[in-house]
Amino acid sequence: MAQMREPRWEECSKTRSRIVIIGAGFGGLRAAKTLARHRVQIIIIDRKNYHTFQPLLYQVATTMLSPGQIASPIRGMMRRHVNVEVIMDEVRRVDLAARTVHLNGTQVPYDYLIVAAGASHSYFGHKQWEALAPGLKTIEDALEIRRRVLLAFELAEREGVTASGPRPTPAPLAFVVVGGGPTGVELAGALVELTRRALRRNFRAIDPARASITLLEAGPRILPAFPEDLSRSAERQLRAMGVEVRTSSPVTSVEPGIVRIGEAAFPSTVTLWAAGVVASPLGSFLGGQVDRFGRVAVNPDLTLPGHPEVYVIGDLAVLHGKDGCVLPGLGAVAVQEGDAAARNISRDLRGQPRVPFRYVNKGTLATIGRKAAVAEFGPIHLSGFFAWLVWLFVHILLLVGFRNRVMVLLDWAWSYFTQERSARLITGESDLPGWPRGPAAEAGPDPVNSVPTRTGRS
User: Fold this and answer.
1) Domains (ranges, CATH) in the chain?
2) Known catalytic residues?
3) pLDDT tens digit string along 103-126?
4) What's the CA angle centered on 271, arms 198 and 387, to 5 degrees?
5) pTM value?
């Protein structure tokens, strides 16, 4: 007897509702997985062919992990769901009246639309700072930060080794992280681990441990989304590690080799930006009300006002929690919103009324460094070693794919016991003066903080 074949979604397109999901981040993927159990047709559109586990991007940037350990192909993640199709393309605009998503040269109609396009860096009107102070939102950003950090040490070593006459004592390198949120705190702590431990005894003319790490925060305290006691604890842990923490210090200018706060100037070999985010420009195409960060105001059920078939979730949506504050742009929020949007669509298809979204805060974590972290679980506040253990356990569980979990766990164990890093590779064109350069490379006044070359990136 011939085996029955389950029809592909194209064959059922006349009878199944078509749901288009823009963005394969935490929220978009959760919505797709929840909806895939129903008789619907799902199309995921993303500019990349992989999902990135953003909470560990800073570890790629600071040589702890390789990109493949925190990224998973979208098609592989959806391979068991025959009613899910993936399109790698960029959304140009959304025609709400015609219910059509416009891509490069093609159009995709929808019955329901879930917009989870995420966010990018915000330089608060100073776009020119981006070339000098890269942010951290993508794998490419992490590789660029890794390149600049490692090049800074290579340049300093080369100058010391090739100096004629008595070898001078090189000036210590200076790393400045702008922004005291979780990303900034994690970057600053990871730089300490890199300079004080991983690179120890790797150079002859310079001492990486002499590098200075400065964390600048415009507000009165770092980790402002955390309770004040955990914020103060995080600051104490950073200072104990050797990070200079400066609060109430808004950056007024970023220049090659210098970061300015009013009249004060901080020398900076490498400047990293973790100070703010702005929602995807796709939000402005939806025609709704947007705030100054480009986020779209949504109804309590996460739909776009006037368009009950359009859901906006994740970093692109602005929605207030029980305390009246805007929900933070965290992966946990996006996951719950993706699940809620999918369940409301399912209710629609069954003829049931929708329910408003209610965010459940299951806890907030931020790591600072080796045996240092802070964690909030409602009334329970942890800091130090126990918070660090919880952070390790939670992030291993949240990683996508068994192989990634095993590889990350092995790399973490190796680094913990040997204090070495496995991903200290400088990829792309080198900016070292006098070295062979590709035809696309651009010379600049500052070899570390110059505009990055995007060709040949691995």
Assistant:
1) 15-47+89-122+278-349 (3.50.50.60), 127-275 (3.50.50.100)
2) 186
3) 998 999 999 999 999 888 889 889
4) 55
5) 0.86
